[in-house]
Amino acid sequence: MRDQGASCPVRILGIETSCDETAAAVVEDGVRILSNVVSTQHALHERFGGVVPEIASRAHIEAMLPVLDRALQDAGVGLRDVDGVAATTTPGLIGALLIGVTAAKALSWLLEAPLLAVNHLHAHIYAVWMAGATPKLPAISLVASGGHTSLFLTRGPLVHELLGGTVDDAAGEAFDKVANVLRLGYPGGPAIERAAARGNPAAVTFPRSLLGPEGAAFSFSGLKTAVLYHCLGRNVSKGDIERAHYDAQFVADVAASFQEAVVDVLVAKVCGTAERHNASSIMVGGGVAANARLRDRLRAEAAARGLAVHLAPASLCTDNAAMTAGIGYHLLKEGRQVPLTVEAEP
Ligand code: KG4
Ligand code: ZN
Prior knowledge:
- Helix content is 43%, strand content 18%.
- By secondary structure, the protein is of the alpha/beta class.
- It folds into 2 domains: 11-125 and 319-333, Nucleotidyltransferase, domain 5 (2-Layer Sandwich), CATH 3.30.420.40; 135-311, ATPase, nucleotide binding domain (Nucleotidyltransferase, domain 5), CATH 3.30.420.40.
- The longest helix is centred in the last third of the chain and has 29 residues, at 248-276.
- 5'-O-[(R)-(carboxyoxy)(hydroxy)phosphoryl]adenosine is lined by residues 19, 145-147, 172-173, 175-176, 187-190, 193, 286-288, 290-291, 318-319.
């Protein structure tokens, strides 16, 4: 570890392997991104229509060292120039998490540098701060990703109280599964968004499940099934999905109508929760937050209700290690380093 002079920036090496991206980044003082390398496994999972955990773990093993090398090279720093090593320890696929956590432990031991254990959902929220935003706190934070749709009451970069989450599918998972039904490929979010651009969001009225507008819970499973039945009828089999052929305009209209239903629910829940908690602002991150329709609708609805909304930059919404390194800086600053015995938790 380096000797840190008073004016010396603090450099954190971040490692993220919670799902199907092998990522490493070097970030200074929690905000200056010196490098941000993401190696995605999408091509490996595409034919399964979703992430296969065993394939993900093996791919992380292969990608980890080249990705780390590249992150250091891009940043123009050596391993000895790093002041701390931050890795995602939870939540995620356990086999995938273990690869990144083990790499981080080895580096922390080798460099005698502090090891920092990052909660991936908190890191998704932290991406908002990386854009230089200064949200008024407490804020209501929404993380909408492939694995989670969660609302938090946020009091600082490291202080988040979970208010509620999805009782079944996550928002991103619904995008991926609907994209599979529509034969649009994986990951589904960007593919649905592209198809939706040519479609009519009012073409099909899909259900909006609010699970009681007062609560902070979400459910997207019914919506996903409604799309499936709309496309292929009620007695549909897996083979029917694989053999399905649709007219391009039908796909565009279903994609747009489905996207609108998800966006309606997310916007209503996050704004309603912010008002009920008298929150000063709204923060939004996670892969689904890259969706332009969601971003536009959130900005418009928050403005109409007099709420400030801060979105993670689109480039930092999907999984990356810059947000991991960024929040790692705050863990280090607060003296929250962890021992080498720290465990990954799904
Ligand atoms: O945050 P993320 O990269 O990984 C997890 O932590 O899960 O989120 C990935 C999810 C996938 O389900 C993907 O389909 C969705 O985010 N996603 C999107 C968009 N880009 C990624 N969903 C809607 N619109 C997008 N543009
Ligand atoms: Zn994520």
